[in-house]
Amino acid sequence: MSRSRRRATAPPDTDPCPCGSPRPYGRCCGPLHRGESAASTAEALMRSRYSAFAVGDAAYLMRTWAAGTRPATLELDPRTEWVRLEILGTGEGTPFHHEGTVSFRAVYREDGHEGELRENSRFVREDGAWVYLDALA
């Protein structure tokens, strides 16, 4: 995912969470973005990373990227609006595992056209915290 709609600030805590959870942003991805808590599963990290793309939080994306695959910089595309996330499946990635996968479909809008990104992402634990490793082919 290299696209994102930038926001000047994070959404209010009472707004719906961009990840599609029924919980508001302040009780879902907001605490993760602010560093107040950590994702307990690979899916929770995937959802919080999608939300970070949606709100333009490149710093969170870099913090939650595995050291061995993290790019030196990350430029988010302000023309892209992330619209919806659909989790298609998960593999392991629970508090009892060291690795996990999350397959997802992310819908975006750019220049008036809708598109989608499908990925099967791989996550691992580094220093006890879930981080994004890479996309499986």
From TrEMBL:
It comes from the Bacteria. Belongs to the UPF0225 family. It comes from Nocardiopsis aegyptia. It holds the Pfam family YchJ_M-like. SUPFAM superfamilies: NTF2-like. This is UPF0225 protein HNR10_000233. Gene3D superfamilies: 3.10.450.50. PANTHER family: ADENYLATE CYCLASE-ASSOCIATED CAP C-TERMINAL DOMAIN-CONTAINING PROTEIN, UPF0225 PROTEIN SCO1677. Transmembrane segments: none annotated. Residues 41-135 form the YchJ-like middle NTF2-like domain. InterPro entries: NTF2-like_dom_sf, SEC_C_motif, YchJ-like, YchJ-like_M. Residues 1-21 are annotated as: Disordered.
